[in-house]
Amino acid sequence: MNKSKFMPLCKVASVSISNVDKKTSANESEVLLCNYVDVYRNWAITEGISSKLMKATANNHEIEKFSLHKGDVCITKDSETKDDIGMSTFIADDIQGLVLGYHCALISPQKDVLDGKYLNAFLQTEFVRHYYELNASGSGQRYTLTLDIIGSIPVPVIPLAEQRKIGHIFSAIDRKIESNKKINDNLSYQSDMVA
């Protein structure tokens, strides 16, 4: 059995916090916005859900800094409660013009060291949830994860082949859940039509 080596996330990925808002400006370029709710509700952002993403605009600097690429991971960085902070999603496809919205952090793994699917699965463990609860700043009405807190998440770095196996298992489960949701939505639609 291979031993894992814990490393701070900032040593195996770049981390940045988005400031791209939902506004539309005539002097900016049109983008698809992966916003807080998209990150919060989806295990993965795929081409299949791109039609449901909000259209907004961003300036060239924001597009350069916060464009999302296959293999990236995003997390929500704010929440009303500590136990509901840091929800993550995996960018499963390259989607033209996809940019991360504000109140979220972009994590781009070093692909020769860290697999995005594996990182996404790890960020949803109780270990990381507890880390967030202990380290989130704020009190009362809003909690936040700072760049330093996110960059300091201790990540177990195991051989890439093992990371990919773990990531594949969780992605396969997510695809099955999405397929079941579509079937349920279709059945619900059909029953509404009959009634």
Strand element count: 13
Strand percent estimate: 25-35%
How helix-rich are the residues, as a percent range?
Answer: 25-40%
Main beta sheet: strand number and arrangement?
A: 5 strands, mixed
Q: Provide the residue-averaged pLDDT.
A: 90
Rg from Cα: 18 Å
The general outline is: globular
Category by helix and strand content? alpha+beta
Distance from first to last alpha carbon: 57 Å
Determine the number of helices (DSSP H or I, runs of at least 4 residues).
7
Contiguous low-pLDDT stretches (5 residues minimum) are none
Strand order of the largest sheet: 2-10-6-8-4
Order of helices and strands: EHEEHEEHEEEEEHHEEHEH
Describe the structure.
This protein is α+β, with helices and mostly antiparallel strands. The protein has helices at residues 9-12, 36-41, 60-66, 116-123, 126-135, 147-151, 160-194; strands at residues 5-8, 13-17, 29-34, 44-45, 54-58, 73-76, 78-79, 88-91, 98-100, 104-109, 137-139, 142-144, 154-157. It is built from seven helices and 13 strands. Strand 11 and strand 12 (142-144) form a beta hairpin. Helix 4 packs across helix 7 (160-194). The protein is globular and about 55 Å long.
